[in-house]
Amino acid sequence: MNKIYFFFFIILLSSCQINGSFGGLVSHQKKLEKSNPNMLVKSNEDICFQSYKPAKVFIVNGKELLSCLSRNEKSLVHIWKPNCRSDLCIPLSNVEAITNDINATLYIVAEYYDEAKMKIDYKINNPILGIDCKYYKSSFTKKYLGDFLQGLLQKKDVIHYDYYLFEGSQLKLETNSYQDLQ
């Protein structure tokens, strides 16, 4: 019986092929720093008041972003997956429109770095933010995103969602569906 399981396991392994760059598994921050060092901005200025600049990504940690949220009556943090093709992944301009409809300030946080997607001139007001992987000492998405969310949400056990709605610095809604925001 064990030989049959082993045989199927070997067949399964030999039929698997991995194509791509593991986007979403690792950050690709170091790769982007090498290929386009001017794209990433670790600003000494307050990120809360930066305006959108095409092909610029502002590096932040969760606590820095939380300080911005406390300055707004209502904020929406969108964890953006640049290569997502799901029906739940809508264009950033649509997220901006929803945010305007609910009278909130939008903060787009890239889950991982994708140079091609980050070079696009989106119709948004605030800059795209990138998670500071060096601050979290990890390039693995699950690790640094979890740590980022712990700092942002001020709690230990976090579940990864696409949208976090805040009133001031108080979390009011966590959801994966933009429809829950309307």
In short:
The protein has helices at 2-15, 29-35, 62-69, 92-101, 115-118, 133-136, 141-153; strands at 40-41, 57-60, 74-80, 105-110, 128-131, 163-167, 170-175.
Q: How would you describe this structure to a colleague?
A:
With 182 residues, the chain is of the alpha/beta class. Helices cover 33% and strands 19% of the residues. It is built from seven helices and seven strands; from the N terminus they run ααββαβαβαβααββ. The protein has helices at 2-15, 29-35, 62-69, 92-101, 115-118, 133-136, 141-153, and strands at 40-41, 57-60, 74-80, 105-110, 128-131, 163-167, 170-175. The protein has a seven-stranded mixed beta sheet. The radius of gyration is 18 Å and the shape is globular. It starts with a helix and ends in a 7-residue tail after the last strand. Residues 5-22 have low confidence and may be disordered.
Strand content: 15-25%
Contiguous uncertain segments of 5+ residues = 5-22
Distance between the termini: 55 Å
Mean pLDDT: 84
**Using only CA atoms, what is the Rg?**
18 Å
Q: So how many helices?
A: 7
Helical fraction: 25-40%
Largest sheet: 7 strands, mixed
Given helix and strand content, the structural type is alpha/beta
By DSSP, the count of extended strands is: 7
The helix-strand sequence is HHEEHEHEHEHHEE
Q: Major sheet: order of its strands? A: 1-2-5-4-3-6-7
